[in-house]
Amino acid sequence: MEIDPLPNGSGSNAATSPETAATTTAITVTSNTAPSSKLSHLTESLKLEHQFLRVPFEHFKKTIRTNHRTVEKEVSAIISSVTDVADSDEISKDDAILSLTSLVSRLQGIKRKLEEGSHAENLQAHRCRARLDHLDSADAENLSEWNNVRLKRILVDYMSRMSYYDSAMKLAESSNIQELVDIDVFQEAKKVIDGLRNQEVGPALAWCADNKSRLKKSKSKFEFQLRLQEFVELVRAENYMRAISYARRYLSPWGATHLKEFQRVMATLAVRSHTECAKYKLGLVMTDFGFLIRFPVAFNLISHRFWVVDAVASVWIGAIHDEFQILSG
Protein backbone atom coordinates (compact mmCIF):
# COMPACT_ATOMS: atom_id res chain seq x y z
CA MET A 1 0.00 0.00 0.00
CA GLU A 2 1.34 3.41 -0.90
CA ILE A 3 1.11 6.28 1.56
CA ASP A 4 0.17 9.65 0.14
CA PRO A 5 2.84 12.30 0.71
CA LEU A 6 2.21 15.19 3.15
CA PRO A 7 0.86 18.34 1.51
CA ASN A 8 3.79 20.57 2.63
CA GLY A 9 6.70 18.16 2.61
CA SER A 10 7.93 14.70 1.82
CA GLY A 11 6.29 11.60 3.08
CA SER A 12 9.42 10.51 4.89
CA ASN A 13 8.82 13.01 7.69
CA ALA A 14 5.27 12.04 8.60
CA ALA A 15 5.68 12.54 12.36
CA THR A 16 5.63 16.13 13.60
CA SER A 17 8.18 17.01 16.27
CA PRO A 18 7.05 18.70 19.54
CA GLU A 19 9.10 21.80 18.64
CA THR A 20 7.33 22.12 15.29
CA ALA A 21 3.92 21.69 16.92
CA ALA A 22 4.68 24.34 19.53
CA THR A 23 5.88 26.77 16.87
CA THR A 24 2.77 26.16 14.78
CA THR A 25 0.52 26.75 17.79
CA ALA A 26 2.31 30.00 18.68
CA ILE A 27 1.99 31.30 15.13
CA THR A 28 -1.71 30.40 15.10
CA VAL A 29 -2.35 32.15 18.43
CA THR A 30 -0.42 35.24 17.31
CA SER A 31 -2.27 35.43 14.01
CA ASN A 32 -5.60 35.10 15.83
CA THR A 33 -4.88 37.70 18.52
CA ALA A 34 -3.27 40.34 16.29
CA PRO A 35 -6.53 41.33 14.53
CA SER A 36 -8.32 41.29 17.88
CA SER A 37 -5.72 43.64 19.36
CA LYS A 38 -5.98 45.99 16.39
CA LEU A 39 -9.77 45.95 16.61
CA SER A 40 -9.61 46.74 20.34
CA HIS A 41 -7.21 49.62 19.69
CA LEU A 42 -9.49 50.96 16.95
CA THR A 43 -12.52 50.74 19.26
CA GLU A 44 -10.77 52.66 22.04
CA SER A 45 -9.54 55.26 19.54
CA LEU A 46 -13.07 55.79 18.24
CA LYS A 47 -14.35 56.26 21.79
CA LEU A 48 -11.74 58.95 22.30
CA GLU A 49 -12.50 60.73 19.03
CA HIS A 50 -16.22 60.49 19.75
CA GLN A 51 -15.68 62.41 22.97
CA PHE A 52 -13.64 65.10 21.24
CA LEU A 53 -16.37 65.54 18.62
CA ARG A 54 -19.31 65.40 21.01
CA VAL A 55 -18.33 68.49 23.00
CA PRO A 56 -18.60 71.16 20.26
CA PHE A 57 -21.59 69.37 18.76
CA GLU A 58 -23.50 69.52 22.05
CA HIS A 59 -22.59 73.19 22.41
CA PHE A 60 -23.78 73.79 18.85
CA LYS A 61 -27.18 72.23 19.58
CA LYS A 62 -27.46 74.12 22.85
CA THR A 63 -26.70 77.44 21.13
CA ILE A 64 -29.32 76.79 18.45
CA ARG A 65 -31.97 75.93 21.05
CA THR A 66 -31.17 79.01 23.13
CA ASN A 67 -31.31 81.33 20.12
CA HIS A 68 -34.57 79.80 18.95
CA ARG A 69 -36.24 80.20 22.34
CA THR A 70 -35.04 83.78 22.71
CA VAL A 71 -36.22 84.90 19.27
CA GLU A 72 -39.52 83.03 19.56
CA LYS A 73 -40.27 84.71 22.88
CA GLU A 74 -39.39 88.19 21.61
CA VAL A 75 -41.31 87.83 18.34
CA SER A 76 -44.38 86.54 20.19
CA ALA A 77 -44.30 89.56 22.52
CA ILE A 78 -43.97 91.98 19.59
CA ILE A 79 -46.84 90.39 17.68
CA SER A 80 -48.99 90.61 20.80
CA SER A 81 -48.16 94.32 21.17
CA VAL A 82 -48.97 95.01 17.51
CA THR A 83 -52.28 93.17 17.84
CA ASP A 84 -53.22 95.20 20.92
CA VAL A 85 -52.48 98.47 19.12
CA ALA A 86 -54.34 97.39 15.98
CA ASP A 87 -57.42 96.35 17.96
CA SER A 88 -57.51 99.63 19.86
CA ASP A 89 -60.25 101.88 18.46
CA GLU A 90 -59.27 104.97 20.38
CA ILE A 91 -55.57 105.68 20.15
CA SER A 92 -54.07 109.12 19.75
CA LYS A 93 -51.39 109.99 17.24
CA ASP A 94 -48.81 110.48 20.00
CA ASP A 95 -49.62 107.09 21.54
CA ALA A 96 -49.35 105.44 18.13
CA ILE A 97 -45.95 107.03 17.51
CA LEU A 98 -44.80 105.97 20.99
CA SER A 99 -45.94 102.37 20.38
CA LEU A 100 -44.24 102.24 16.99
CA THR A 101 -41.02 103.65 18.43
CA SER A 102 -41.09 101.00 21.14
CA LEU A 103 -41.67 98.27 18.56
CA VAL A 104 -38.78 99.51 16.41
CA SER A 105 -36.51 99.48 19.45
CA ARG A 106 -37.52 95.91 20.29
CA LEU A 107 -37.02 94.81 16.68
CA GLN A 108 -33.54 96.30 16.74
CA GLY A 109 -32.89 94.36 19.93
CA ILE A 110 -34.00 91.14 18.22
CA LYS A 111 -31.73 91.91 15.28
CA ARG A 112 -28.78 92.35 17.63
CA LYS A 113 -29.56 89.08 19.42
CA LEU A 114 -29.89 87.28 16.08
CA GLU A 115 -26.49 88.57 14.99
CA GLU A 116 -24.90 87.49 18.27
CA GLY A 117 -26.61 84.11 18.07
CA SER A 118 -25.54 83.64 14.46
CA HIS A 119 -21.94 84.43 15.40
CA ALA A 120 -22.04 81.87 18.24
CA GLU A 121 -23.59 79.23 15.96
CA ASN A 122 -20.97 79.84 13.26
CA LEU A 123 -18.21 79.54 15.84
CA GLN A 124 -19.49 76.18 17.09
CA ALA A 125 -20.09 74.93 13.54
CA HIS A 126 -16.54 75.93 12.61
CA ARG A 127 -15.17 73.98 15.58
CA CYS A 128 -17.16 70.89 14.56
CA ARG A 129 -15.88 71.20 11.00
CA ALA A 130 -12.28 71.62 12.19
CA ARG A 131 -12.48 68.39 14.20
CA LEU A 132 -14.10 66.45 11.39
CA ASP A 133 -11.41 67.68 8.99
CA HIS A 134 -8.71 66.69 11.47
CA LEU A 135 -10.22 63.22 11.84
CA ASP A 136 -10.40 62.88 8.07
CA SER A 137 -6.77 63.94 7.65
CA ALA A 138 -5.37 60.78 9.26
CA ASP A 139 -3.63 58.54 6.73
CA ALA A 140 -0.60 56.28 6.50
CA GLU A 141 1.74 59.08 5.42
CA ASN A 142 1.18 61.42 8.37
CA LEU A 143 -0.01 58.93 10.99
CA SER A 144 2.92 59.64 13.32
CA GLU A 145 2.27 63.39 13.25
CA TRP A 146 -1.49 62.86 13.61
CA ASN A 147 -0.97 60.65 16.67
CA ASN A 148 1.37 63.26 18.14
CA VAL A 149 -1.38 65.89 17.83
CA ARG A 150 -3.84 63.51 19.42
CA LEU A 151 -1.50 62.93 22.35
CA LYS A 152 -1.25 66.70 22.88
CA ARG A 153 -5.05 66.97 22.83
CA ILE A 154 -5.24 64.31 25.53
CA LEU A 155 -2.64 66.15 27.60
CA VAL A 156 -4.47 69.47 27.24
CA ASP A 157 -7.72 67.81 28.30
CA TYR A 158 -6.03 66.17 31.29
CA MET A 159 -4.35 69.40 32.42
CA SER A 160 -7.67 71.22 32.10
CA ARG A 161 -9.38 68.58 34.24
CA MET A 162 -6.66 68.99 36.85
CA SER A 163 -7.13 72.82 36.82
CA TYR A 164 -3.78 73.56 35.12
CA TYR A 165 -5.50 76.01 32.80
CA ASP A 166 -2.47 78.18 31.98
CA SER A 167 -0.33 75.17 31.09
CA ALA A 168 -3.14 73.71 29.00
CA MET A 169 -3.59 77.01 27.17
CA LYS A 170 0.13 77.37 26.45
CA LEU A 171 0.39 73.82 25.12
CA ALA A 172 -2.66 74.34 22.90
CA GLU A 173 -1.33 77.64 21.55
CA SER A 174 2.20 76.36 20.94
CA SER A 175 0.80 73.31 19.13
CA ASN A 176 -1.84 75.34 17.24
CA ILE A 177 -4.65 73.02 18.34
CA GLN A 178 -7.00 75.54 19.98
CA GLU A 179 -9.88 74.43 17.76
CA LEU A 180 -9.30 70.78 18.65
CA VAL A 181 -9.52 71.12 22.45
CA ASP A 182 -12.18 72.31 24.93
CA ILE A 183 -10.40 74.56 27.40
CA ASP A 184 -13.32 77.01 27.35
CA VAL A 185 -15.63 74.33 28.76
CA PHE A 186 -13.33 73.81 31.73
CA GLN A 187 -12.95 77.57 32.21
CA GLU A 188 -16.73 77.84 32.44
CA ALA A 189 -16.65 75.13 35.08
CA LYS A 190 -13.83 76.94 36.88
CA LYS A 191 -16.01 80.04 37.29
CA VAL A 192 -18.65 77.95 39.06
CA ILE A 193 -16.17 76.18 41.34
CA ASP A 194 -14.29 79.40 42.15
CA GLY A 195 -17.59 81.09 42.97
CA LEU A 196 -18.49 78.34 45.44
CA ARG A 197 -15.04 78.56 47.00
CA ASN A 198 -15.65 82.28 47.49
CA GLN A 199 -19.08 81.45 49.01
CA GLU A 200 -20.95 82.78 45.98
CA VAL A 201 -23.71 80.68 44.45
CA GLY A 202 -24.59 83.13 41.67
CA PRO A 203 -22.41 81.55 38.94
CA ALA A 204 -23.60 78.06 39.91
CA LEU A 205 -27.26 79.11 39.78
CA ALA A 206 -26.68 80.74 36.39
CA TRP A 207 -25.17 77.47 35.19
CA CYS A 208 -28.19 75.59 36.54
CA ALA A 209 -30.52 77.92 34.62
CA ASP A 210 -28.60 77.26 31.38
CA ASN A 211 -28.69 73.50 31.94
CA LYS A 212 -32.12 73.20 33.53
CA SER A 213 -33.44 70.52 31.18
CA ARG A 214 -30.34 68.35 31.61
CA LEU A 215 -30.44 68.64 35.39
CA LYS A 216 -34.12 67.74 35.40
CA LYS A 217 -33.51 64.77 33.15
CA SER A 218 -30.77 63.45 35.42
CA LYS A 219 -32.93 64.13 38.53
CA SER A 220 -30.16 66.21 40.04
CA LYS A 221 -30.73 68.18 43.24
CA PHE A 222 -27.74 70.45 42.78
CA GLU A 223 -29.91 73.55 42.32
CA PHE A 224 -31.96 72.60 45.38
CA GLN A 225 -28.78 72.37 47.46
CA LEU A 226 -27.71 75.80 46.20
CA ARG A 227 -31.09 77.26 47.14
CA LEU A 228 -30.88 75.65 50.57
CA GLN A 229 -27.47 77.22 51.05
CA GLU A 230 -28.77 80.71 50.29
CA PHE A 231 -31.73 80.18 52.62
CA VAL A 232 -29.46 78.97 55.44
CA GLU A 233 -27.20 82.00 55.01
CA LEU A 234 -30.22 84.31 55.42
CA VAL A 235 -31.26 82.46 58.60
CA ARG A 236 -27.74 82.63 60.00
CA ALA A 237 -27.81 86.38 59.42
CA GLU A 238 -31.20 86.44 61.26
CA ASN A 239 -32.82 88.01 58.21
CA TYR A 240 -35.97 85.99 58.74
CA MET A 241 -38.40 87.94 56.55
CA ARG A 242 -36.13 87.65 53.53
CA ALA A 243 -35.58 83.98 54.33
CA ILE A 244 -39.35 83.34 54.37
CA SER A 245 -39.82 85.22 51.11
CA TYR A 246 -36.91 83.34 49.56
CA ALA A 247 -38.30 79.98 50.68
CA ARG A 248 -41.72 80.72 49.21
CA ARG A 249 -40.23 81.66 45.87
CA TYR A 250 -37.38 79.20 45.42
CA LEU A 251 -37.76 76.30 47.89
CA SER A 252 -41.48 75.57 47.87
CA PRO A 253 -41.39 74.13 44.30
CA TRP A 254 -39.00 71.48 45.62
CA GLY A 255 -41.24 70.53 48.54
CA ALA A 256 -42.94 67.65 46.74
CA THR A 257 -39.69 65.89 45.85
CA HIS A 258 -37.51 66.83 48.84
CA LEU A 259 -40.07 67.19 51.63
CA LYS A 260 -37.92 65.94 54.54
CA GLU A 261 -34.99 68.23 53.76
CA PHE A 262 -37.38 71.10 53.15
CA GLN A 263 -39.11 70.60 56.52
CA ARG A 264 -35.83 70.25 58.39
CA VAL A 265 -34.35 73.43 57.01
CA MET A 266 -37.60 75.39 57.50
CA ALA A 267 -37.55 74.44 61.19
CA THR A 268 -34.46 76.62 61.60
CA LEU A 269 -36.72 79.68 61.37
CA ALA A 270 -38.09 78.84 64.81
CA VAL A 271 -34.71 78.73 66.56
CA ARG A 272 -31.78 81.07 66.98
CA SER A 273 -28.83 80.69 64.65
CA HIS A 274 -26.54 80.01 67.64
CA THR A 275 -28.76 77.26 69.09
CA GLU A 276 -27.05 74.31 70.75
CA CYS A 277 -29.93 71.94 70.03
CA ALA A 278 -28.33 69.26 67.88
CA LYS A 279 -31.44 68.57 65.82
CA TYR A 280 -31.87 72.18 64.70
CA LYS A 281 -28.19 73.00 64.68
CA LEU A 282 -27.83 70.30 62.04
CA GLY A 283 -30.26 72.20 59.85
CA LEU A 284 -28.06 75.28 60.01
CA VAL A 285 -24.92 73.42 59.09
CA MET A 286 -26.41 70.78 56.81
CA THR A 287 -25.12 72.66 53.81
CA ASP A 288 -21.83 74.41 53.35
CA PHE A 289 -19.84 75.64 50.39
CA GLY A 290 -17.28 72.87 50.80
CA PHE A 291 -20.06 70.32 50.41
CA LEU A 292 -21.37 72.07 47.30
CA ILE A 293 -17.90 72.04 45.74
CA ARG A 294 -17.66 68.32 46.41
CA PHE A 295 -21.19 67.73 45.12
CA PRO A 296 -21.24 65.17 42.27
CA VAL A 297 -22.65 67.68 39.79
CA ALA A 298 -19.66 69.93 40.40
CA PHE A 299 -17.36 67.09 39.43
CA ASN A 300 -19.57 66.24 36.47
CA LEU A 301 -19.20 69.86 35.46
CA ILE A 302 -15.42 69.66 35.67
CA SER A 303 -15.33 66.49 33.60
CA HIS A 304 -17.94 68.00 31.21
CA ARG A 305 -20.12 64.92 31.38
CA PHE A 306 -23.14 67.08 30.62
CA TRP A 307 -21.66 67.59 27.15
CA VAL A 308 -20.26 64.14 26.44
CA VAL A 309 -20.87 60.54 27.27
CA ASP A 310 -18.94 59.17 30.25
CA ALA A 311 -15.40 58.36 29.19
CA VAL A 312 -13.89 55.17 30.50
CA ALA A 313 -10.60 55.86 32.26
CA SER A 314 -8.92 53.00 30.44
CA VAL A 315 -9.53 54.79 27.16
CA TRP A 316 -7.31 57.65 28.25
CA ILE A 317 -4.64 55.46 29.84
CA GLY A 318 -4.60 53.07 26.91
CA ALA A 319 -4.51 55.89 24.39
CA ILE A 320 -1.57 57.62 26.08
CA HIS A 321 0.28 54.29 26.32
CA ASP A 322 -0.32 53.59 22.62
CA GLU A 323 0.79 57.06 21.54
CA PHE A 324 4.05 56.80 23.47
CA GLN A 325 4.70 53.41 21.90
CA ILE A 326 4.04 54.79 18.43
CA LEU A 327 6.21 57.86 18.96
CA SER A 328 9.07 55.90 20.54
CA GLY A 329 8.85 53.18 17.88
UniProtKB/TrEMBL annotation:
Domain of life: Eukaryota
Domain CTLH, chain residue ranges per copy: 185-242
Coiled coil regions, renumbered to chain: none
Pfam families xrefs: CTLH (PF10607)
Region described as Disordered: 1-21
One CC-aspect GO term: nucleus
PROSITE patterns registered for this protein in UniProt: CTLH (PS50897), LISH (PS50896)
Any one GO BP annotation for this protein: proteasome-mediated ubiquitin-dependent protein catabolic process
Any one Gene Ontology molecular-function term assigned to this protein's record: ubiquitin-protein transferase activity
Identification of the protein by name: CTLH domain-containing protein
Native source species: Gossypium schwendimanii (Cotton)
